[in-house]
Structure formats: structure tokens, C-alpha cells
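Researcher: First entry.
Model:
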Amino acid sequence: MKVPLLDLKPQYQALKADIDAAIARVCESQYFILGPAIKEFEGAVAAYSHTAHGVGVSSGTDALLLALMGLGIGQGDEVITSSYTFFATGGTIARSGARPIFLDIDAATFNLSPALVRGFLEQQCERRDGGVFNRATGGRIRALMPVHLYGQLADMQSLGAIAREYGLKVIEDAAQAIGAADEHGQRACSFGDVGCLSFFPTKNLGAFGDAGACVTNDAELAKHMAILRVHGMEPKYYHAFIGGNFRIDEIQAAVLNVKLKVLDSWSEGRQRNAAFYDAAFAAAGLGDKVTTPYAVPGYRHIYNQYVIRVQQRDALRKHLADAGIGSEVYYPVPLHQQKCFEYLGYQTGELPESEKAAAETVALPIFPELEQAQLQYVVDSIAGFYRAA
């Protein structure tokens, strides 16, 4: 049996007629930049995220960068975020001219630890001149950038309270978490000043290439980001700001308009598969050799990835590959250990939970079109590996 980590062909075949028609309409109109499909999508994705305004952009990475630029974060500023995440989270902070402050994660959820954020602000920072400053660097702490990793919200109630107490902006990295929600039904991107989404093809809502969006309840911020995404131009050929070319393509928006209508059914399929895995792993009796993902009670986890902690990870991955099962490691090197961030001065062992997660985790196939027989084959293969060991 073959179980790929991801197979997008069944998704496309189910929507082929609608997607092909949407692309054809764009081709017939020859309106490729900031056209009606983009306007429709911006409104729809904002509403889906329980926000008022959407700004479509060229990628999830550019969404993060645009959010930082829109909030005026740059040289001399510092942004607190997680070390255990995709590179774009820290990379965009550095590209903005600001300094990333990497803190550790909660061991159960893999998300930024509010206790450590508060501890850093209380113990290593000081309030003065109307702001909060890092004693070690002199930089002003301007924002929090929590990541809703693998499809589950970070603890936004706690992080939001900290941000309000210290006067910090909040940029939600929701690249993996469109539609994720807390126990009150409040969705990712609606807690902070701006939420950032990615529509990379592997996401629950994936485009036919790179695409992203910023969503917000702040009308002025949305207007400012919309100007910044076209080189800071308003009106045409007049530039009050230095922006970038961050526009989403009309064809991508057209595809996403079709897919957004069925996104909930796909997320429900991932949830069903996760529940099957949870039960099957429990029945397999693997003890401490496999730890399944922790889902916060009452939260809506959309399972962009189903990530387990395991012993002998690399050997297990080889065993799975030999059995025709796809897997992936997200992420093998935390950001504080990346060579490009050596200048920040972090030492190995400084963020132990991030380092442990990087060494122990592996993602299993979770896409909605998987059959139960395939899911059971994955579990049986993992159980067989540990029995043989």
C-alpha cells in the first residue's frame, strides 16, 4: 500500500469543472492584477476569519512582512516570537530591520509559551519613555508574533492580555491555521492587530502556487497595507511610502474563491482522520514510544499537520519510507540554531523544548481524501517498527 504525505490530485478532480471555469473567466477577461476575483476573495477570507478587511498578497511570507511594515516595525525594534516554526516567521522580522526575540514553546501544543513571554518582559525588559525596552540590547519591544502551529491556536487569551498590558502589537502567524478557533468559536487572525495567512498548495486552503493574505479589523491598517503592497503607491505613480510588490494574482484568487466554499468539509476530513489516528494509536499500545498530538479541549484544531513525538525518529522514517508511507519533519532546526541567526547569540540548550521538538517530531499523512485502510496501515507500520526494535 502507498500512503503519500500529500496528494492534491483528488481535490482538484472533485473541483475541476469549477476551477477550470474560474480560470477561464480570468483568461477571457485578461484582467490579471487586482481584479474582481481578488476583491471577492478578500471579502470572503476576511469574513471566514471573523475579521472586517482582507488584503490579498503574493505569499504567506509577504503577508508577515507586509504586516510588520504596516505597523511601522523596523530598525531598533524587537518582536517576540517562537523559535519552533517555519523560517518565514523569524526571517520577515529580520528583513523588516527589527530583531527577532526567540522564546520557547509549550511542550504539549508546540505553540509560544505565554509564561515565558511574561517572564522575559518582567525579568529582561524595562518600561521607560512610553515603551518596553530589552535591557540587554536596548531595543524596543514592539510586537508579539505568535504562531498557530500545525492548525491549533496559540493561547491568545493569555498572549493578548500580555500584549495589552505592555502596549505591544500582535501579528498572528496563521499560515497553518485558517479557520482554527478557541473554545468560544473565535477564529485565528481575529485576536490581534493583523492576521497573516498562507495559501501555499500544501495548506488546508491551497492556491495553484504562492499566495497569502492579511486580515484585520482595523480599516486604516487595511488601507495602509493595500497601499504598501503596490510599492506604497496612492494615487498612481505617487509614493508617500516605500512598499513592495506584494500583490496576489487574479488567477490565484479565482482558484481560492472556488476552494474556500468547501474548506470546512476538508478541515472536517482532517479532523476525522486525526480522530482515527488517535484511537488507532491508543489501541496499538505503544506506550511512551509514540505521543499523539495534544488538542486543547474545546478548540477547533484544523490539523494542517498531524505531528507525533517518537523515539528513534530517523530510523522510523526510513522504515515508513520502505513501507511506501510519506512523512516529514517540521522543523529539524529551530530558528535560534539557524546559522543566519548566529548574530543573536543564542546557545544550544537555551530553548530546550524547541530543540526537543525538533529532534523528536514527525508529521504523518493527514489529508482529507485518505481512506481508513491507509490510516490503519500507517499505524500498523509504526507499531511493527517498535515491536521489531
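Researcher: Second entry.
Model:
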Amino acid sequence: MRLNSLILKMFVGICRLELHLMEGTSLKEKRQVIKSITERLKNRFNISIAEVGCQDALRRAEIGLALVSNETVYLEKVMGRVVNFIENDGRVQIIKIDKEIY
């Protein structure tokens, strides 16, 4: 089979979340909370995720995540589950969500 005759579809979902930390008296505590959340999300949803902004702010954080699939419905579903997971973590509150699928 020739490669030109194959139609391959790949979609990328990206999401940026701005978070408010409910408690925290130091940047070290903040980083522990963010690391805990991002590691749990990586393990549970098999996504790429990192703190991408507000590293020096005491009570704010920005995390970015990305995932790839051949179905946009799957990407929406996983991103929704990630948001729900974070909303259920009492240590942080979501301030802003930016999601896109390409």
C-alpha cells in the first residue's frame, strides 16, 4: 500500500489552566501542591503536563497540558475529566480555562 493513499488523521488537544492556590505560605509549598497535582494527572490520564506560568507567584499557578488522538471527541472527554479532577482537589480553584483542538 502506498503512503500517499493513506489518509491519516491526528488531532492535538491543548489546555491552559490558571489556578488559585487556597493555602500556602511559601513557594516551596506551592510547588509541592502543583507537582502533586501534575504527577497524579500524568499517571491517571497519560497526558503531557507542566507548570507553564506564574512560577514566582505565591498563590497563582498556570499549568499547560497536551494530548494527541485520532478523535476530537476523545480529546474533549479527557480534557473535561482533567478539569473535573482539578476542580475536585480542594487545594486549588480554577480561575481560567483555555482549550483548543487542532
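Model: Note on the second entry: The CA atoms of residues 18 and 62 lie 4 Å apart.
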